[in-house]
Amino acid sequence: xxxxxxxxxGSTYTKLTAVDLDKxxxxxxxxxxxxxxxxxxxxxxxxxxxxxxxxxxxxxxxxLACSSAAGGLRMVVSGLMPELTAEAARSAALGAGxxxxxxxxxxxxxPDLAEIREIEPEIFLITGGxxxxxxxxxxxxxxxxxxxxxxxxxxxxxxRVIADEVSEILKEFDLTVCPNVMPRxxxxxxxxxxxxxxxxxxxxxxYAKGLSQVEELISNIMMPTPQAMxxxxxxxxxxxxxxxxxxxxxxxxxxxxxxxxYSMASGSPRLSSTVIKGLPEPYARRTVEGDIGMRYSxxxxxxxxxxxxxxxxSGLDSDSISHWCETLRADPAQLPDQEEIEALDFALSCxxxxxxxxxxxxxxxEFYTPMGQVFAQSGKDLRGVRKIIATGGSxxxxxxxxxxxxxxxxxxxxxxxxxxxxxxxLIDKNYILSAMGVLSERYPDIALKIMRKELLHE
Amino acid sequence: MDKAKIVIGVIxxxxxxxxxxxxxxxxxxxxxxxxxxxxMVSQEEFIAAAIETDADAILVxxxxxxxxxxxxxxxxxxxxxxxxxxxxxxGGNIVVGKQPxxxxxxxxxxxxxxxxFAPGTPPEVDIYFLKxxxxxxxxxxxxxxxxxxxxxxxxxxxxxxxxxx
Lengths: 458, 165
Ligand code: B12
Prior knowledge:
By secondary structure, chain A is an alpha/beta fold. Chain A folds into 3 domains: 3-70 and 205-245 and 432-456, Nucleotidyltransferase, domain 5 (2-Layer Sandwich); 72-203, 3-Layer(aba) Sandwich (Rossmann fold), CATH 3.40.50.360; 249-427, Nucleotidyltransferase, domain 5, CATH 3.30.420. Chain A has 16 helices and 18 strands. Chain B has one domain: Cobalamin-binding domain (Rossmann fold), CATH 3.40.50. Chain B has helices spanning 18-29, 43-53, 67-70, 74-80, 101-110, 123-134, 139-155; strands at residues 5-10, 33-36, 57-62, 87-92, 99-100, 115-116, 159-160. In chain B, strand 1, helix 1 (18-29) and strand 2 form a beta-alpha-beta unit.
């Protein structure tokens, strides 16, 4: 046996996964409640002990890790137009596994600066203007940021023409210049920025995060956890070259405070005559819904879906819904152990999935003209995706999972929303995806085979 | 000097793509930095693109007859968005049916367009007027333009909108 230990330093849990490289299989996992502020080493030791009670004594030949400790990689991004460079910047940061705390567009105002100081981002990404495009707003933003005492590294990926000027303005700060995220209108170039974000994360941020306590492990931290998720899913979808992938997929990670949705699909229009609107989206796309979550963001779900839908699906009346929501807010650790909470939990899960996937999926708008219909598509057409993966504690333990996931499907009542028409549901029951993303850095074939075994029961 | 930057596109639910591609080709060849938004472009998309690219002019096409409705309020939105004074041109088959061009031109100018082009105007004419408005005509171009100025006079007596049925 050649065992490898994969560690995910989370905000509240340290999660361990052990795999065997020889048999190419999952050995076991264990969690322990820990925060970096307190006892990360103790937590790790506890989790390791728990793991070994399940797997027996293990000798690890390698230990690899990812981290979302202390709230994840907290970034603030700025761009010019909300739907153009600001969106490009946001999407680049999300794809690099960051938690985008705030996205600014247009000129940064003094209240904005006060807010940014309050947020204390770990990386600030400045964008805006195509190459040769707008200068004034971006220069004014750089000057505004120069007046602050922010300590975090800055990455500039805006209008190339003023890169030198921006460097000069921010010369007292730790600034890296990257190629523009949007060199020409509608053309994205986000990989160089994402690479830089990962470097910064590894070079300095993991230390600042209190992870230096796990001295001997720190050099094994490979990436932020969400990036590990993205890597795992991209590998699972596309294959490794030697091991076949499972094709286009959609994955939902329904959490307590936020909901992440991932799609691995090009999402090109079905009809070649369809006109494409808005920014192109990457094959591997991640979105995060900050207002959709099963405990801390219950109000967001209800606001997005409407109380009528909650009533309809749960069978509860408004009074019991607000009563139980109150209970959940007061005690987020509450598990669905009573019939009414269970009904409410079910309805909230369905609507969280529906809302988050609808926001992630593309849209088709139909125009009627004397010559018939004309279509305009924005975002990805996911109707042809045939695999939906459920991951994250709020989903994988649910007994009504298939019913919940059906809310991620195409709904004829809302024909413009391009969600999968039908799909097989795969369950990440041992929560191995992020671990496999980390493992894939060294052993992509094995990581893929283990995912296939775990998710497809091969 | 930097290239002059323009944003072009076909407004509304209009899918006529051929003229748009010809304009992209013609203006790029004439030395402009062209951002082409293609067909079915909303007013907001024109404005966002012009801000992000720091454009000198927006050239709006409309072919399918609803141009007059689709462009309404564009100048005001430009002003509102910080694009005060940006050059606005419109061309194609911008109204329905046969209407005297002089009247159509007047109506579109009232809506804030700097220039209005009659159906079938060849790209050389568009390019000439844009360079003229941006103050970048060379001496030779100005000389050659005398004929073009006449072309526009000519259009004054023509028609806007459909010309074939
Ligand atoms: C091909 C065509 C179609 C094709 C378009 C295919 C495609 N994806 O491109 C199809 C079949 C889809 C189509 C559909 C329709 N069409 Co049609 N179509 C035409 C046709 C025959 C040719 C258009 C063309 O490509 N011209 C060649 C290019 C090079 O010229 P252009 O587009 O005019 O552009 C040049 C100039 O106008 C100028 N220009 C254009 N914009 C601008 C802007 C500025 C600022 C400047 C300076 C210059 C400028 O420069 C361009 C390059 O030289 C015209 C008739 C005609 N002969 O023009 C009708 C025509 C445009 N269509 C017409 C109509 C009504 C329609 C429909 C509503 C219904 C129908 N009758 O079929 C639908 C609308 C669909 C929609 N939602 O947009 C009418 C418009 C009538 C009006 N405005 O009053 C026309 C004029 C036919 C007619 N006589 O009735 N159409």
